[in-house]
Fold each of these.
Amino acid sequence: MADHDPAHLEAWRAEVRAWLATVAEPRTEEVFEWGVGDPRLQIFLAMSHDEEVAYLDRVREYRRKRFDAGYGAIALPEEYGGAGLPSVYAVAFADEEREFAVPPSSEIISVTTNLVGAAVSVFGTDEQRDRFARAFLRTDMLCCQLFSEPGAGSDLAGLTTKAVRDGDDWVISGQKIWSSNAQFSEYGFLLARTNPDVVKQAGITAFLVPMDASGVEVRPIRQMSGPSTFNEVFFDEVRVSDALRIGDVDAGWKVAQATLGFERSSSGSGHRRKGGTADDLVELARHLGVGGDPVVRQELADVYIRTRLHAAMVAKVARATASGDKPGPAGSLGKLLASDNLVRIGDCASHLLGMAMVADTGEWGEFAWTEHVLGAPGYRLAGGTDEIQRNIISERVLGLPAEQRVDKAPFSQLAKS
Ligand SMILES: Cc1cc2nc3c(=O)[nH]c(=O)nc-3n(C[C@H](O)[C@H](O)[C@H](O)COP(=O)(O)OP(=O)(O)OC[C@H]3O[C@@H](n4cnc5c(N)ncnc54)[C@H](O)[C@@H]3O)c2cc1C
């Protein structure tokens, strides 16, 4: 098959490069200079509502061009509206894209395109594909992920938001939480319990919910790092047409699992570095005149080694994805290393800055490090907590005994206990 041929891939890469050159400037090497420009050390972008809308508009303009050029859903099968190319093409696109100054993506863009757009393409009806999947993949509409609840995060299948059938509609009541960028979304991709009398995974159904429907209330949560990246979302007898159900009734767990799986095989877009790096720490140590201190040097070397280990793991996952493998437990190792490094980098910056970290003397870069330290714990939770990654590694990499499962009874009986 031509598209598995390395020569075909190289020719395709050249086409991608040529197309990218028509929509963006080549990315120039960023030279970090203490005291110059935006220190960009924060993990969660801090913007006003209007700034964030303008930011998203720039990304969406680019994503529409990308979709129209045929690069919107590279690895999605053609029958689902994608380009139907092997994953290696999606990885190659991300590589090429990193060389250009395209608008850096944000969480809601990747949730809308990589997760929800792909899920609706695969599990939706023809009508849903026409009406929604294309609009999500092209970012004409944004869709947040309404999975987590106050009592259902790591244990997602324990969710209690319920949907009750009423003629051609469903009536949804309950609460979601940590819904990233729900305040900018036209739709929400929601999991609800539709049958409590079966084991918890078996009674869940997926829906698209218009965020402006009567009974939906979005309340932004102010994070300790400053911005309101995520929200609580309340549903008070929200009426949703059965035409907005994605997949079969009570088959939502399969939809949810696949949706979370798309996250790993996504093609990526618009690189945005998250938080301060080991290089930023070295600059900080130099600026403070402590680069020769043996204890500081040891701490910096430790962070640097861990950063290189993470980079090696990312490269390994990318190679596996490119050759069509699922990332598997290596994805958990990468996530754990990334969140652990962010915390270690923040700890090291705190040691270097001392009291200035909390006193904030107003000097350039100081508060940016404070934002980093306050944002790092969130990253340890998002996308599966450190402990859950460790469980996966211990069970699936080290082959240790699995956690005891005590929740195999019908959900209604669990909820009562
Ligand atoms: C920045 C950010 C963005 C997010 N965006 C979204 C979003 O857009 N949509 C959405 O639906 N959700 C989102 N989430 C929610 C995220 O998926 C959950 O926070 C995550 O799944 C953890 O769930 P929880 O917060 O309920 O913690 P819990 O699951 O209650 O965990 C609490 C603590 O117990 C530990 N723990 C739980 N179970 C085990 C176990 N079996 N073994 C060992 N330790 C365990 C956890 O590691 C953690 O330390 C976001 C979270 C963050 C921080």
Amino acid sequence: MTSNKQEEAKKCLQCEKVLTGRPDKKFCNDYCRNTYNYNHRRKDEVIVRQINSILRKNRQILSELEPEKKKVNIHRQRLIEMGFRFNYFTNIYKTKSGKIYHFCYDYGYIEVSTDYVVVVVREKYVR
Ligand SMILES: [Zn+2]
């Protein structure tokens, strides 16, 4: 297979200058490499931090609603109004009888009807 070298000219991922030299080069120098890696790591960290704070808030809300181990039905809307986001959870636990719990860390809930959930806490959580 032949190809036009001109079209293949690779550019520095950071400053977009055309690169010369080794074909596997991605940056023109260490400065560009470091800047690029720094910025990308920061972007990753921001995303992780945002998701963590949603999960932490979810856990906080569930922990406030878990009233001394008594199983109490809570309307989904009430959770939403408190800022709970149902799309975010750390894991799903399915019992042998097929009941599904959604957990945010050690706190979770189970849907008991279309509108209501029961909040639970899992004492021995990490196995
Ligand atoms: Zn560069």
